[in-house]
# Entry
Amino acid sequence: MTAERRAVGDPDAADRRATGEPGGTAEYGGTAEYGGTAERLAAVARRLGLACERAGVAPRDVRFVAVSKFHGTPALTAALEAGHRHFGESRVQEAQRKWPPLQERYPGTRLHLIGPLQTNKAAAAVGAFDVLHSLDRPRLAAALAAAMERTGRRPDCFVQVNTGDEPHKSGVPVAEVDAFVKECVGTYGLPVVGLMCIPPYGEDPRPHFRLLRALAAEHGLRELSMGMSADFETAVAEGATTVRVGEAVFGPRPRP
# Structure
């Protein structure tokens, strides 16, 4: 199993493990080997361009998020110097620690939260990120709405759908998507722009991508966050508007 496609369960526990909070381990502070980052980034961009051509869509209509979680400043700087501006992080505290100076140096950089989000970190996430990809439960929706009301910031939100209905994985069950999207938009007034999924590891992702596209269409949502290093080309063929690619750009993640 690649690190990008691990089933994610309790977001609170996952965040503790990565940030060194009680019950967790020390934060990943290492730096991956960053030589060749620009070349790998360009190679992924070429593959993405070809996938868009085959799908009959303009490359500018598919956002390429480079998943930089757990990677340090040298690797990020290499990608930024190459002109890339969309990056994905999975931990609020990690993003707060490493990104502000880089955002000041490289204007236009946009951060995407792609990991599970603790409710008590909702306000910090609203302040740190431009796009939230893991809206998955009513308590989080309420917390995000309150934080947006207080701060005036309104990052775009994707509802994460558990397309495989895996019991230990984050995401809204397929049968509950309709009610949850309506609650997020109607009750909480959240800026929901689309849906996100992570297909079950080892399965053909196509049925999951197609299901997500159909669910989004039911609600008039045009944005689809789907596809990672192993399957982003397939995702583009099935209508992805955002792909989240980490290992193919930065190489294996650093370990504690």
Q: What stands out?
A: The first helix runs from residue 11 to 19. Residues 138 and 183 are 8 Å apart (CA to CA).
